[in-house]
Amino acid sequence: MPLQLVTFTDAQGPRPGAMAGADAVLDLLAAGALPAGVRDMQGIIESGPAALGAIRAALKAPPAAALRPLSSVVLLAPIPRPRRNVFCVGRNYMEHVAEGDRVAGRQTETPKYPQFFTKAPETVIGPGAAIPDHGATGVTKFLDYEAELALIIGRAGVNIPRERALDHVFGWTIGNDVTGRDLQRRHGQWWKGKSLDRSCPLGPWIVPADELDASDLAIELWVNGEKRQSSRTSKMIFDVREIIHQISLGFTLLPGDVILTGTPEGVGYAMDPPRVLKDGDVVEIAIEGIGRLTNPVKA
Ligand code: MN
């Protein structure tokens, strides 16, 4: 089992942990498993190899007093409140570009450069947390899902060359780029349709980059058990190295930055007939080697 880094909460409040098997969380502060001064996931990310080494050592013989049954805690997003906007790549799988162009009646061409946009930090929610039915409030007529590989930056950098890009990745998690499609189109700039409250489920944990090659992983999404998306991360138009290279041109990436790498085909608005997310739906995303991220939609 790879190292799975979580942020969890209970009566004592949010703190960092590591999964110890499927049903328990090692409380890293209670276990004394972190370097001095490291108190949360941001600190673990900034500490990097020192923190990861200490956590791996603690997991070899976890102190019983620091183990929490998973059923007794709530997992939050691994980074519950990023320090700044979540960076995102649009139109990064060819079949998704094609389905969008088909709906819009446009000719499909391969994008020459990655399309970047952001989601506000406040959009981030954790596994199991409810995505609001923004359709029920009339804000959008078209609430939709997008399964995405998310990467967490570990080392700061600017003008990062492609061949060094993976050195800047701390780890991987799963993201759902929940979108109000009509707002995305209506306002030209995508930010409005992409930054609805609680529209960025992240988690359930971070798998460190030195334990998982994310270049060719199965990525799948279900709504109420019906499979809607199924692809592989190797089908990205701009791979993780290129994304980091391009976004860092003249722009300094910082430890703890979250980048969503785009969604494959199978989104609801391109289905015939189109399908929207609504109260009572359950959205589940699986990425091979990382895990499963499940969120209900609630009015
Ligand atoms: Mn997206």
Task: Spell out the key features of this protein.
299 residues, alpha+beta, Fumarylacetoacetate hydrolase, domain 2, seven-stranded mixed β-sheet, five-stranded antiparallel β-sheet, 6 helices, globular, binds manganese (II) ion
Give a written overview of the molecule.
The chain has helices at residues 41-47, 49-60, 94-104, 181-186, 191-194, 240-247; strands spanning 5-9, 15-19, 24-27, 67-69, 74-76, 86-90, 115-119, 124-125, 131-132, 143-144, 147-153, 169-176, 179-180, 200-208, 218-223, 226-232, 258-260, 282-287, 291-298. The chain has 299 residues and is an alpha+beta fold. The chain folds into 2 domains: 5-76, no CATH class; 86-298, Fumarylacetoacetate hydrolase, domain 2 (Alpha-Beta Complex), CATH 3.90.850.10. A hairpin with a 3-residue loop joins strand 18 and strand 19. It is globular, with a radius of gyration of 19 Å. The model has no long low-confidence stretch (mean pLDDT 97). The structure holds manganese (II) ion.
